[in-house]
Write a structure and sequence with these properties.
globular, 15 helices, alpha+beta
Amino acid sequence: MATPRRNLISVSNTPYYHCISRCVRRAFLCGHDPLTGRSYEHRRDWVEKKLLQLGRIFCIDICAYAVMSNHTHLVLHIDIAKAKRLSNKAIMIRWHKLFNSTFLCQRFLNGELLTQAELLAVNDRVNLYRERLSSISWFMRVLNESIARKANQEDDCKGRFWEGRFKSQALLDDAALAACLAYVDLNPVRAKAASLPEQSDYTSIKSRIESAQKAKQPKTLMRFAGKLRKHMPKGLPFELKTYLQLIDWTGHSIREGKPGVIPLDAAPILERLNICSDNWLTLTTSFTRSFKNTAGKEQAITAYANNMKRKRRSSITNSLALFA
């Protein structure tokens, strides 16, 4: 039996989650269908534009994404601090970029005088919007529903476009986060949809590389903040340069079909995460098969199970083997 979403996503355990959505029909999400000869490449643009738009509206950061032929991969970060920090007006403006406004909310935004009862009703509505704007379930719902409607309209059909619900994995520590980021960024390379990461269209890695060539980081993605330190700014806890070197080394190893030797300039991140090269390649080529609902080292999975009051520790065997 599938685990309820509320029992999978817990910000107190980790703000990072890997989300996967797959098409339920034989028809392609994107790409070229050899049976019918039709091309669905333009749908990649639909997904990427909607995804990046939602990243600007929701209190959820996009860490990585890859739009494949019949599924999408996302690594998301829930920013609870931002959701709490935004004013009632800011929350309402964000929500109304996606959904219609109520009459009472419109009056509030226009600065009209409201009674005490009306203000209480507005506050209740804002609290609901605030919760939804920091919810991965709502993020994925808005993203997938909009794509499904457009695809069904284009295909002139009705019914489900996606599987019953998206799959999510809690990334419990830096090791799991780094491995999952690499897994998502190298998806097109493994699928032979691209020869190099910088040639992988509609992916986060291509966007990061293009920005890095200009000595910048993309504003639409969660930035790399560097090594963990006392006054840590918001961002991924790795160096961007080291991560890109790691992606390049991993991609070469996958394409050549052998682990190879880790270059000296890629060693720091692997040493810090304490993962050997063979295990790293397993993690970055079969992440979703190696882990179910949670991913991380033994201590992180044990703590997660205790916090969620679970008797079983999901994926603990693979965690002990791969993160040893």
